[in-house]
Amino acid sequence: IWEGYGHQYLYPDYPDGNDHIQYMLGWLALGLLNDFWRRLLVLPVHSPFWNRALGILSGVLFVLGAYALWPTASFALMDIVGRILLLAVFIGAISSGVIVVRAGFRPAYYSLSGILIFIATVLILTMSGIGVLPGNNYTCVIGYFGYSLEFGFFLVSIVTRARLLEKLAGDAKVAVEIETGETTNKYSRLRSLDISALALRLRHLMEAERLYCDDDLTLQRLADLMNISRHQLSELIREVFHTTFNGYRNDLRIKAAARLLIEEPERTILSIAMSVGYNAKSSFNSAFRSATGQTPGEYRRSRLNLIRKDPHSNETDD
Questions:
Q1: Spatial separation of the C-alpha atoms in residues 73 and 243, rounded to whole Å
Q2: Most buried by CB count within 10 Å: which residue of 7, 49, 121, 243?
Q3: Which is nearest to 30 in space by CA: 57, 68, 66, 69?
Q4: Per-residue pLDDT tens for 40-95?
Q5: Per residue in 271-301, is it b (16+ CB within 10 Å) or e — as a string?
């Protein structure tokens, strides 16, 4: 049994010319939503291919929206092309979302969940409309339910992204610099790049995924993971973190080692050194002394003695 709303969706009676604006707004909204998705998931950094593909798709949707205003525009043609583009948007959103989720970018979990829920509600609406599923008052309005959940998840993703950026940016000065690009000069290799997104990606790779623990980590390898050149990565680290690649990497290693020296007092210094990325105890001792003014053994003894005297003092130095 064909339900009216499903039949109307799949085989609509094409409207009069008064609905040109309605069609234009529909394609414009979809194009803007598609472009919003690219920015929300920081696709220029996480997936350059899908960033370009979805950018082209947004352009086509904007062109279709402009065509809808043409007095003799064919609604049948717009329906056919529009549904193909809608399918392409869904494929692009899911594919890029999976890539970003696998990269560990937390806001993408919420964005992808919202898209999948919305697609599921559209499928239920369509199948109930053609008789595959029984139609009722609930399946008739399930599309609105999907819309609500989708934008609810998008809102959570936006808030999570903003908090993550604030956390990874460090202090207010760095946040302003990476958001405005004020750190770059006239001849900077970073002028055409999204510095905020790159800084976010770099902090995620180095701190959340703990790449600094890899003793084979090089500037070139890290640059390849970020899809930029080694010269661009070197400048990014210098501009945002005011140090070199080796300095940035060693700083993270020493901070991690300092925590482990206190949290795991029975563990050997060599084991800790190797766990944070050093392959020789001598190089670890030298780097640790340079950063803290003490050898790892001296640091551990002094901190543990302090904790024994004052049990509430259990924080390690930065």
A1: 58
A2: 121
A3: 57
A4: 887 876 777 888 899 999 999 999 888 888 888 887 888 888 889 888 988 998 99
A5: ebbbbbbbeebeebbebbeebbeeebeebbe
